């Protein structure tokens, strides 16, 4: 077992912008590498993981999963990420999943400023479409004043002590 905790998640995702997650699972020969390829080509991904500067990988498998399998899967993921990427991986042993290996990848820290990153996606009708790797800007946050019927809740001065704890009264 290789432990990954929330400090690792924070180290990778803090101030990294958009994060993408992909999952993959496989059984049989080369199951870890097949699962890693499935994770980076997951249909849940809106863009490619290519160039990610922060990557968290969780590999779940039975007790017979070998370290060489984990190493091969990680090499695939390293080849996709940025050359200076902070890649943290964890390994979970779960004999309840029989012979299956599951790979979950969370990637962040993309340099999407050039707009050149595109991923080809195949539609159900067999035609290829190009999906832009650029992200949409975050929607403007709603103003509090508009949410509370024209009054600003932070400036409500009705001078009652409902907001004060008992020990301060």
What is the structure about, briefly put?
With 169 residues, the protein is α+β, with helices and mostly antiparallel strands.
Would you spell out the secondary-structure blueprint of this structure?
Layout: H1 6-13, E1 19-26, H2 31-40, E2 54-61, H3 67-80, E3 86-93, E4 101-108, E5 118-122, E6 128-132, H4 144-147
Helix pairs in contact: 2-3
Task: Describe the protein in words.
This protein is α+β, with helices and mostly antiparallel strands and 169 residues long. It contains four helices and six strands. Strands 1-4-2-3 form a four-stranded mixed sheet, with helices on both faces. α2 runs parallel beside α3 (67-80).
In CATH terms, the superfamily is Tubulin/FtsZ, C-terminal domain
User: Sheet with the most strands?
Assistant: 4 strands, mixed
- Spatially, the strands of the biggest sheet line up as 1-4-2-3
- The CATH class assignment is Alpha Beta
Give the terminus-to-terminus CA distance.
53 Å
CATH topology category name: 60s Ribosomal Protein L30, Chain: A
Structural key phrases:
alpha+beta, 169 residues, single chain, 4 helices, two-stranded antiparallel ribbon, four-stranded mixed sheet, 60s Ribosomal Protein L30, Chain: A
């Amino acid at each position: 077992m290789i432990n990954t905790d929330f400090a690792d998640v924070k180290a990778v995702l803090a101030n990294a912008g958009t994060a993408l997650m992909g999952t993959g699972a496989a059984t049989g020969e080369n199951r870890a590498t097949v699962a890693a390829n499935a994770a980076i080509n997951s249909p849940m991904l809106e863009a490619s993981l290519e160039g990610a500067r922060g990557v968290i990988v969780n590999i779940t498998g039975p007790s017979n999963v070998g370290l060489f399998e984990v190493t091969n899967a990680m090499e695939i993921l390293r080849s996709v990420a940025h050359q200076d990427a902070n890649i943290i991986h964890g390994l979970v042993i779960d004999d309840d999943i029989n012979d299956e290996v599951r790979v979950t990848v969370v990637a962040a820290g993309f340099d999407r400023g050039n707009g050149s990153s595109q991923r080809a996606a195949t539609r159900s009708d067999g035609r290829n479409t190009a999906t832009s790797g650029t992200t949409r800007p975050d929607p403007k946050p709603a103003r509090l004043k508009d949410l509370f019927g024209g009054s600003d809740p932070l400036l409500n001065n009705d001078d009652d002590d409902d907001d004060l704890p008992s020990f301060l009264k």
